[in-house]
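Q: UDP-galactopyranose mutase, please. Structure only.
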Amino acid sequence: MQITSGLPENFNPDAYDMIVVGAGYAGAVCARRLAENAGFHVAVLERRDHIAGNAYDYLDENGILVHKYGPHIYHTFNERVHNFLSRFTKWADYQHKVLANIHGTLMPVPFNHQSLKLAFGEERGEQLFNKLVDTFGRDVKVSIMELRKKSDPDLAEVADYVFENVFLHYTMKQWGQTPDQIDPSITGRVPVFIGDDDRYFPQAPYQGMPADGYTPLFERMLDHDLIDVYCDIDARDIFEIGDTIVRVCGKVYGGEIVYTGPLDELFNLDLGALPYRTLDMKFETLDMDQFQPVGTVNYTTSEDFTRITEFKNMTGQVVPGKTVIMKEYSHAYEPGSGQTPYYAILEPENRALYERYLERVQDLSNFHPVGRLAEYRYYDMDAVTDSALNLSDEIIACHA
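A: Structure for UDP-galactopyranose mutase:
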C-alpha cells in the first residue's frame, strides 16, 4: 500500500481495475477483498487527509487515544464480519455501558432493574420489575409500544416514565423535532431491559475495542501490494457521471467503481439536498484521572448537548492525571459547510429524493454505491462491513 496526498501528475485511471471512493469501512473492505480475492489493482480516493473514515482515531498530546468523529463502539452478531475484521486487529475487552443523567441521577440505559429502583424507589421499583417479569419474562428487551399494548396501569407508568425522561427530550435535541413531529414508530422501539445486565449491547456475542485503535486496523486492511491510497482527493473534481458511462480524469473508465460518498453531492445537489443531522464535538482535556464512571453519559433531561464521552473509559488506557471528554451538540447539516453528515433523516420524502438520485446511476453497470452515505441509511460499523462484503462478493463473482 502507498498513501499519497493528492494525485500525481501522471495518474492514469486505466492502470487500475477498480477505483474506490472513500477509505472508511465500506471502501476499505471492498478494496481489500477485490485486491486479495480477484487480483484487482485498486486506487482508493479519500477526500480527507486520513484513512478510516469516521472511525479515525489518534493519540493526542497527552498520549490519550481520541475518536475524532465521536465514539465508535464495536459490537456485532455477525460472525463473518467479526472474522474478517479480526484479521486486522486484536480486540481489547470492552463492554459498553451507558448511563442517563436524569435530573441529576445516573441511571443505566436501556432502562433495567436498577434503573427502576433508582427512578421509583426501592420498593415501588421492585414491584414494577416483578410485574414486568411476570408479563414478559426475564432478561428480555421490551419496547414501550409493547408495554402500552397490555393496558396495564403499572406497565403504562413505566412506559410513560421512560418516554418522558429517557427518550423525549434527548430525541428532541438529537433530531431537532418537537414531540408531535417524532414518529410514533421510533417511540415504540425504545426498549426496557427486564433484567440486571447493564451493558448497552447485552446480547451481542462479539464486542470490544481494537487493541491498537481503529486507525491501525484500517492501515492493516489497506496494506496490500495492489492497493494505492490517495488522500486529499475529492472525487467530484475528477468524475463525470453520464447516463451509461463514467469519465475519470476526462477518460471513459471501464473498471469497477465503488462509491461510498453522498449521491446528492456527486450531482451537485441538482435535485435538492438530502437532509442529515450533524454534530459539533467539543473536546476538553481535564486535569483528573476520571471524569465519569462509564464511557458515555446521556443528558436526557438537561443541557444543550446530548451526551458526554470519556475515551479512557472505553480504551482502558492508563494516563495518570489527564483525561479527555467530548460533548456532542446536534444540529442540521449544511452541505458545503465542511460539516460531517452523520445521521440520515429517514422520512418518506427524503427517501424518495434519494431514490431519484439512485435512478441516475442505475444504468451504470460498473458503478456501485455502498455505505451509510451512498445508501442514505443508518448503519452501525458491522452493518456497513456486511454490506461491503456482500457487494464485493457480487463483483468477485462477476469477474470469476
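A: Brief note, in case it's useful. Residues 98-194 form one domain.
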